[in-house]
C-alpha cells in the first residue's frame, strides 16, 4: 500500500496523481491523506520549465482538458474519500474507460452529482456573498466578508472576485480558511480545524456579511496585515479615486450595499487586448493633454523627448541597455530613484534583487537587454526622499514609441514582462497579472512571458510567499531563455490579434 499525503487542493492532488499514473499505481493500492493546513499562491503552481526533468523519464499520461476540468470542479466537493475517488476516476479514464464521464455509469453518476453540487454552491456564493467596506484608516484589506460553504470553494471561486473587484483589496473568510487578494496576488490559506463564527449576526445583519469585532475576523486580518499589507505601501495610485459601485442584489433579497466592487475598467472588458485604431491615436503634450495630429510623434532623441510631462521632474531619461542582438529582453515599469541618477536601468534595490534572480536562473545579465516601459522616473516628495509613483496610462502610451523602437531594433525572440505595468505597455491589455502567470502571449510577432517585477519581493514579509514569488520569477526567466534557445514548448499561448 502506497501512502500519499497532500495539501487539500486540486493542484497538489493532480501533481501526485500524475506521478502515480506514471508508476502504474492502481487505485486500490493507494491511500490518500490530507495535511493539516496549507496555503496556495495563485500563479506559482505551473509545472517546472521544459527541459528541467529527466529526459529519459516516462512522459505523463495525457488527459482531455474537458475531463480534467470536471475533476477540478469535483475536487471542491467535501467528502472523506474525494481524493481516492478522483484518482479512481482518473485511472479509469486513462485505461480507456470513458464511461466514467457518463451519468449512466455508477461512478460517473456520482462524479456528475459532485460537480452539480459544487457549481450550485458556487453560483450561490457569487450571488449572495456580502463584502463590508472597512474604514480606510484601518488599512488594507478594503473589503472583508464571511461565507460558510459546504464545499471547498475558495480556490475555485476566489479568482472570480479578484477579476470583478480589480485593484480593491479584500479578504473572504470561511470556517475552513480564507482567501486574500492584494490587487495582484491571490492567496488561499486553509485551517485544519473548522472555525465557528463566534458572533451572532442579529436580526439586522445580512446573510454572508462579515461582522465587526468577530474574533476569527481579527485573526485573519492580522494574518493579512503580516502577509500582504506591506505590498500596498507604494500602491497609492492602484486604489486612487476610482468610484465604488454596488453589485446587483440577488432576486427577492433586500436592497443593500452588497458585493461592493471597485468600478475597475479591467472588469468591463473581454479577455483580449484592446487598442485605439491607428487613425485615432494621439500624442501627449507637456501638460499631459492629448493633442491630435503628429506633433512630437518623432522626437530627435530620447533625451529630447517631451511627449509627456515626466521629463520635467526627472534627472534624465533612462534608455535600455544590453547587446544589440540579445535574444531575451526584460521590460520593467520605470526607472527608480537610483536609476534616474545613474541613467541605467535596474541599478537600484530592484536591480540587486534581479541579480539574485538571474543568478538562481543561471542567466548572465550581460546577455540580456534590460529596459523599462516608461523612461522617466515618476515621483513625489516624501520629506527629503523621492517616492515612486506608478505611471498613468497616458504616460505609458506616450512612452510606447520608445519601447516599440527598442523592440524593432533589438528584435528579441522573447520578451519578459516584469510586472503588470510592463504587461499593459507591451500588449495594451489591462488585466490582473496573475491571469497570465505561467502562460505566453503572442503579440505583434513577439512572444511575451509575464511574471512579477523583482521590486514586489521588497514588499513581502512572509518568507513562504516571498520564496514562492522568487521561484515564479526564476521559472519565468528560465522558461524565456529556453524558448529563445528553441528547447522549450510554448505553454498555453494567448494570441492577441487586436493590434
From TrEMBL:
<keyword id="KW-0408">Iron</keyword>
<dbReference type="InterPro" id="IPR005273">
    <property type="entry name" value="Ura-DNA_glyco_family4"/>
</dbReference>
<dbReference type="Pfam" id="PF13566">
    <property type="entry name" value="DUF4130"/>
</dbReference>
<dbReference type="GO" id="GO:0051539">
    <property type="term" value="F:4 iron, 4 sulfur cluster binding"/>
</dbReference>
<dbReference type="InterPro" id="IPR051536">
    <property type="entry name" value="UDG_Type-4/5"/>
</dbReference>
<keyword id="KW-0227">DNA damage</keyword>
<dbReference type="InterPro" id="IPR005122">
    <property type="entry name" value="Uracil-DNA_glycosylase-like"/>
</dbReference>
<dbReference type="GO" id="GO:0046872">
    <property type="term" value="F:metal ion binding"/>
</dbReference>
<feature type="domain" description="Uracil-DNA glycosylase-like">
    <location>
        <begin position="319"/>
        <end position="469"/>
    </location>
</feature>
<dbReference type="GO" id="GO:0006281">
    <property type="term" value="P:DNA repair"/>
</dbReference>
<dbReference type="InterPro" id="IPR036895">
    <property type="entry name" value="Uracil-DNA_glycosylase-like_sf"/>
</dbReference>
<comment type="similarity">
    <text>Belongs to the uracil-DNA glycosylase (UDG) superfamily. Type 4 (UDGa) family.</text>
</comment>
<keyword id="KW-0479">Metal-binding</keyword>
<protein>
    <recommendedName>
        <fullName>Type-4 uracil-DNA glycosylase</fullName>
    </recommendedName>
</protein>
<keyword id="KW-0378">Hydrolase</keyword>
<dbReference type="GO" id="GO:0097506">
    <property type="term" value="F:deaminated base DNA N-glycosylase activity"/>
</dbReference>
<dbReference type="Pfam" id="PF03167">
    <property type="entry name" value="UDG"/>
</dbReference>
<keyword id="KW-0234">DNA repair</keyword>
<dbReference type="InterPro" id="IPR025404">
    <property type="entry name" value="DUF4130"/>
</dbReference>
<keyword id="KW-0004">4Fe-4S</keyword>
<dbReference type="InterPro" id="IPR023875">
    <property type="entry name" value="DNA_repair_put"/>
</dbReference>
<keyword id="KW-0411">Iron-sulfur</keyword>
